[in-house]
Design brief:
The complex is a heterodimer of chains A (117) and B (215). Chain A contains five helices and five strands. Chain A is of the alpha/beta class. Chain A is globular. The relative contact order of chain A is 0.20. Chain B has one domain: Chemotaxis protein chec (3-Layer(aba) Sandwich). Chain B has seven helices and nine strands; from the N terminus they run H-E-E-H-E-E-H-H-E-E-H-H-E-E-E-H. The longest helix of chain B is centred in the middle third of the chain and has 31 residues. Chain B is globular, with a radius of gyration of 18 Å. Classes of the chains: A alpha/beta (117), B alpha+beta (215). The interface between A and B is medium-sized, with 24 and 31 residues.
């Protein structure tokens, strides 16, 4: 599966990749901001996009909307510790598959991959 | 203390997760949407704290703090402008305070701020401890309304001056703004040099694993 992880934090992106199952059938590509994310989406057309919420220029929900407006329709998951109702409601309204609570770990990723497969 | 770019990024992510969790708990407490700025992180010497927080010498803040012990030792402190803390308490227990005398009112405010602080600080600290895989124990909360230097004097208690001079302060700064009430708070963590080194060693360990496992 082709997966795009978008987070302004390099640490968060690295942790996500570290906790991915060691399975060569998955390709994980990273982006730190919206322009880079859109470039990756155009280039590899990921099946799954994992978006952080709290980022400096555009939040995760805004990024999801931009990806859809660009004509792509991947499954999108929000990855955040900010799980207040306002954020979860915004994500669900924007068509996110689910909200995954930070901190990420191997079990959460395994459950996500099972759900998306 | 030298801090690499990746260590600072890791510290920012730690702050982001911890403070986002704090925002979530505050939202639940107030039943209000909480707007949160992207956290900034700075590590400064103890002496530079006041300047780094951009607080006037005479400004009074309402602060709740809890001592951290275990592998990471220090203090987590949540601060609000004094007026905002009153609004915060009013929002939570306002209806039960209508026929309360001034002395009791102060006691209720004091108690409520400690409880609010405890919930927010504990949730932020616990999630950071989980991320780091470290046991961090927290003391009972303390509360005071005072200038920053008086608060620090109360917090420092019987610690000797040499320890204080060596204290590194990690300022995890975010504004948590309740959208219907215009309440703004900030959170600060203070740690000893040794604890900051423990923290960075653990962060390096986590990132090392990540780097090694990256395709």
């Amino acid at each position: 599966m082709k997966i795009l992880i978008v987070d302004d934090s390099k640490t968060s992106r690295m942790l996500f990749k570290a906790y991915m199952p060691k399975d060569e059938s998955h390709q994980v590509v990273e982006a730190a901001n919206l322009p880079d994310a859109l470039n990756v989406v155009r280039e590899i057309q990921p099946e799954l996009v994992v978006l952080d919420y709290n980022m400096p220029e555009h939040n995760g929900v805004e990024m999801a909307q931009a990806i859809r407006q660009a004509g792509f329709n991947p499954k999108i998951v929000l990855l955040t510790a900010n799980t207040q109702k306002m954020v979860v409601d915004a994500a669900m309204s924007a068509g996110f598959l689910q909200v995954l609570e930070k901190p990420i770990n191997a079990e959460k990723i395994a459950a996500l991959l099972k759900q998306v497969a | 203390m030298e801090i690499g770019e990746l260590e600072l990024d890791a510290l920012c992510e730690l702050a982001n997760v911890g403070l986002s969790r704090a925002a979530t708990r505050l939202s639940e407490l107030l039943q209000d949407n909480i707007e949160m700025t992207t956290p900034s992180v700075r590590v400064v010497g103890y002496e530079a704290l006041q300047q780094a927080l951009q607080l006037d010498e005479k400004s009074t803040v309402a602060a709740v703090w809890q001592q951290l012990t275990g592998n990471v030792e220090g203090t987590s402190m949540l601060m609000f402008p004094t007026e905002d803390s009153r609004m915060l308490v009013q929002s939570l227990v306002g209806s039960s305070m209508q026929n309360t005398g001034e002395a009791d009112l102060r006691a209720i405010e004091h108690e409520a701020m400690m409880e609010i602080g405890n919930i927010i600080i504990s949730s932020a600290t616990a999630v950071m401890a989980d991320m780091l895989g470290q046991d961090i124990r927290m003391s009972m909360p303390h509360y005071a309304e005072s200038t920053l230097s008086d608060l620090m004097a109360q917090r420092d208690g019987e610690q000797n001056m040499q320890e204080m001079q060596e204290m590194q302060v990690i300022i995890m700064n975010t504004r948590l703004k309740a959208m219907q009430r215009e309440i703004e708070g900030r959170m600060v963590m203070l740690m000893s040099v040794t604890s900051v080194q423990v923290l960075f060693a653990r962060l390096r360990e986590l990132l090392g694993i990540s780097i090694a496992d990256s395709p």
